[in-house]
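Aim 2, interim progress: modelling of the adenine-bound target.
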Amino acid sequence: MLRIDVLTLFPRMLDGVLAESILGKGIASGKLGVAVHDLRAWTTDKHRTADDRPFGGGAGMVMKPEPAIAAIEQLQSPGCRRIYLTPDGVPLSPALAEELSRQQHLILLSGHYEGIDQRIRDTVIDQEVSIGDYVLTNGTLAAAVLIDALARFIPGVLGEEKSLTHESFTSKLLDFPQYTRPAEYRGMSVPEVLLSGNHAEIEKWRHARQVEKTRSVRPDLLK
Ligand code: ADE
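Predicted structure of the complex, ligand included:
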C-alpha cells in the first residue's frame, strides 16, 4: 500500500478532501494511507515559530529550515520520495501522477509564506512539483490535488478500469460530450446516434467531437 505523509501548517484544510468521495473510499478501503501532520509539532520554541524574515530583505516571511527538516528526517523511510509543492517545480502531468502512484512512500511538504529556506530543498527534498502556473496561498491544496490525481492510478480506487483508459490526456484528446436520461429535456434532445445502438457509429461520432473540442479549446494538444 502507498503511504503518504503530508506536512502542512494547515492540516485541517485536508479533512474534507480526504474524507469524501472516491478518494475517501480509497483510503477507507486501504488502497492508500494518508497521514496529515502539523508542521508546528516540530517547532521547539514556545511561540511555535515556523517562519522568519528573509535574509537580504524583501516582502513576506520565509519558512524556517529546522521544523521541516526535523519532520522529514523523522518521517522518511529508505527509498521514499520527498516532494515539495511549489509553483517553481516541474509541472504535474499524468505521467508523473502515474509514476508517483507506484511508489511505496511519499512525503509531501506544502510551503507557505513567500517560500521556504533553500536549505530545506537542498537537504530533504527529492523533487519539486507544481500543479499549474498560478500561485496558491499555500501548498496544501496543491498536495490535495497531487494525492487525488495519483490515487486514480492505484488499482481498485476507480470503480471501472475503463474510465481511466478512455479519458482525456491518456489519449491526448479532450473528452466527448456525455448524456444520460431523460432523452429530451427542455426541448434539448440527446444526439440521435447515441440512441441508435450502433457502436461503430457512436465511436466515430465521439471521436469527431473530441477532435472538434480539442481543436477549439486546446489546439496545442494536436501538435
Ligand atoms: N504552492 C503555491 N502555488 C502552488 C502551485 N501552483 N503548485 C504547487 N504548489 C503551490
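The mean pLDDT is 94. The pocket of adenine is lined by residues 85-87, 111, 130-132, 134-136, 139, 142 (CB under 6 Å).
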